[in-house]
Amino acid sequence: MLYELRIYHINPGKMQAIQDRFKNHVIQLFDNHDMKITHFWEESDGDRLFYIVEHENMEQRNVNYDRFRNDPAWIEVKKNSEINGALIHKQESIFMKDVSFFENKKAH
């Protein structure tokens, strides 16, 4: 299993908009493309949003993201949610895998 920690640096005043976009559209769209979000956080005193997506491997991750990015539903959601400007100004991904010496707890 490959775990992708995605970090979004949110533009000022756009945190609620990005959260609404995930809640109302993106989580389901990810699911439609076999991308399972297991955890979500927001920075307690800042402007970053964090989440983890599970992938079978890097190849499958790339295939799934390509399908997602080209999905007409995503293209429309992104366009509509950014009418008043971009929601994020930087996105980072950190790829992680389990270690052999510790059993990580599975998401509920």
Overview in brief:
Helices cover 37% and strands 31% of the residues.
Salient structural properties:
four-stranded antiparallel beta sheet; 4 strands; 108 residues; alpha+beta; single chain
Strand order of the largest sheet: 2-3-1-4
Task: State the distance separating the first and last CA atoms.
Answer: 16 Å
Shape: globular
Number of helices: 3
Strand content: 25-35%
Describe the main β-sheet briefly. 4 strands, antiparallel
Helix coverage percent of residues? 25-40%
Structural class: alpha+beta
Q: Could you list the spans in which at least 5 consecutive residues all have pLDDT below 50?
A: none
Q: What is the ordering of alpha helices and beta strands?
A: EHEEHHE
Describe the structure.
- By secondary structure, the chain is of the alpha+beta class.
- Helix content is 37%, strand content 31%.
- Strands 2-3-1-4 form a four-stranded antiparallel sheet.
- A hairpin with a 5-residue loop joins strand 2 and strand 3.
- Helix 1 runs antiparallel to helix 3.
- The radius of gyration is 15 Å and the shape is globular.
- The two termini are 16 Å apart.
